[in-house]
Design a protein that fits this description.
Elements (H helix, E strand, L loop, with lengths): L3 H9 L11 H15 L3 H12 L3 H15 L8 H7 L6 E3 L2 E4 L1 E3 L7 H5 L1 E3 H13 L3 E3 L1 H10 L7 E8 L2 H14 L4 E4 L12 H9 L3 E4 L13 H19 L5 E3 L7 H9 L4 E3 L6 E3 L9 E2 L4 H8 L22
Parallel strand pairs: 2-6, 2-12, 3-4, 5-6, 6-7, 7-8, 9-10
Antiparallel strand pairs: 1-11
Helix pairs in contact: 7-9
């Protein structure tokens, strides 16, 4: 019978490895491998080697996936308060008469019925401004109304907006004194192609208006009916380029726009918004506004009559002087 040392030497194929016999577990594993080889189980040995080198390859891959996933940036989680702040502004409403003046004359208006309807005498204008003062009205600007719609900035009681269209020189001569008397900020919508021409406000006069606290808005470059313009480039020229001309010459921001004849369509209103204006004013359809109307605001064509003026700006069912003024475009040299 062989000794343990001889058995080990025979099994391991070398008499010089007695230390291996001191580890029965390892010996048994080697014996098992030899038997597997003898039985033609080479594939099993390969599997055991793989298992020995990689006890759990799937665990390693999963760990890599977890690590990679942890390192990838994730979209920020928006807190409930931030989501609320970024939500569209609440729909707000306001009753604000927006007064529209064209010609202001020293004497009773003459000429066509359309021209007479667009003219208020200096005396009647002064009475109307006095009425606003005596009856608690507060004159605000289009920016004030936009701030209310956009941010909820509080409006004063009985707010009213005063505006002038076309840039006639008579507005500067006969309306400005009353505006200065009551410190009313009005917006003058001017046609840029007509500035400085006979009968129209000049650039120095526009600077004086700004110095006196008035606002300057755009009334396009040449006073077309915007709803009839099909070419997007021509529409953009009338709306955007008139703004840049005014801002370049006057060194001030121009944030208000008025549609000639009160004529607009969705494309024109969208262009006004895209051009960077804060408000767009239509014409002659009421005094109630919502936040969705900021680029198509309603207005009142002011009559040369105190009783009608009071009726138009009253709290009841408002009447207006018409849906849009039907006179032709301003003619240079006409007064």
């Amino acid at each position: 019978m062989r000794s343990r040392k001889e058995f080990c030497a025979a099994e391991l194929g070398s008499p010089s490895t007695p230390r291996s016999c001191e580890k029965p577990t390892e010996i048994r594993e080697v014996m098992r491998l030899n038997r597997l080889l003898t039985d033609g189980g080479l594939w099993a040995v390969g599997l055991l080697v793989i298992v020995g080198l990689f006890p759990n390859p799937c665990a390693s891959l999963a760990a890599q996936q977890i690590t990679s996933s942890a390192e990838e940036p994730k979209p920020p989680t928006t807190p409930a308060t931030a989501a609320h702040e970024q939500a569209p502004p609440a729909r707000r409403t306001a009753r604000v008469p927006i007064l529209v003046y064209h010609h202001v004359s020293q004497s009773d208006p003459e000429g066509s019925s359309a021209l007479r309807r667009l003219t208020v005498t200096a005396d009647v204008f002064a009475q109307q401004m006095q009425y606003l003062q005596d009856n608690g009205y507060h004159v605000i600007t289009f920016s004030d109304l936009a701030d209310y719609f956009d941010h909820g900035t509080e409006l004063p009681t009985l707010p009213v907006i005063i505006s002038f269209d076309d840039g006639w020189e008579t507005q500067f001569e006969y309306a400005l004194p009353s505006l200065e008397k009551y410190h009313y900020p009005a917006t003058f919508f001017v046609v840029t192609n007509y500035i400085g021409r006979p009968g129209f406000i000049s650039w120095p006069q526009l600077q004086t208006l700004l110095t006196d606290g008035m606002r300057i808005g755009s009334h396009t470059r040449s006073h077309p009916r915007l709803a009839k313009i099909k070419d997007p480039e021509k529409l953009w020229d009338q709306i955007y380029n008139s703004k840049t001309i005014l801002e370049t010459q006057l060194k001030t921001s121009v944030e208000e726009f008025a549609y000639p004849y009160g004529s607009y369509n969705p494309k024109a209103a969208a262009a006004v918004k895209q051009a960077g204006y804060r408000a767009g004013r239509g014409c002659c359809s009421g005094i109630s506004h919502t936040s969705s109307d900021i680029f198509t605001l309603k207005a009142i064509m002011v009559p040369n009559d105190m009783e009608k003026f009071i009726e138009y700006i009253g709290a009841g069912g408002v009447r207006t002087a018409g849906t849009e003024h039907s006179a032709g475009p301003p003619q240079p040299g006409a007064r």
